[in-house]
Amino acid sequence: MSGTLNKVMLIGHLGDDVKIHRFEDGGCIGRFPLATNETYLNKQTNEKVSNTEWHNIILRNKAAEICEKYLSKGDKVYIEGRIKTRKWQDDKGLDRYSTEINCNEFTFLSNKQDPQGEMNSNPPNNKQEADSSNSEDTSSSDDLPF
User: Whole-prediction pTM value?
Assistant: First the structure.
């Protein structure tokens, strides 16, 4: 063992729908913002304080497609992955940095309803392993609808 660990576990709500970018080779990347909330009592003022932290979630290939199909803004999800900071240049050539969570496992925690208000039994509501490479997803679930 190398003596280091880069692991993130989050439970939060999607701040927007999953956005997919598809590549010519058939692969894709999905992105969405995830909000986590912290609430505590300020002992000095005796007031309840709430803080929201936003996380940029990144998924690849089959995992991105599953999340795009079944998740939407406001849904609750468990995400497990690792932190990655990416360097890029803006339109003016200035260096910018983005900190992202590269998801390698997820679990849907919201129940989906169809437009008539009935529960949809199709969404996989169990733990999924996201694809951490550019190969096909190695999902551990046998009840996926595809």
Answer: 0.74
Protein fold of 8-111:
OB fold (Dihydrolipoamide Acetyltransferase, E2P) (2.40.50)
**Residue 43: DSSP 8-state:** T
Structural domain spans, the chain: 8-111
What distances in angstroms separate CA 51 from CA 11, 35, 54, 56, one per listed residue?
A: 15, 10, 10, 17
Euclidean distance between CA atoms 122 and 70, whole angstroms: 9
Question: Whole-angstrom Cα distance, residue 55 to residue 33?
Answer: 6
For 27-46, how does the pLDDT look when each residue is reduced to its tens digit (9 = 90+)?
Answer: 999 999 999 999 999 999 99
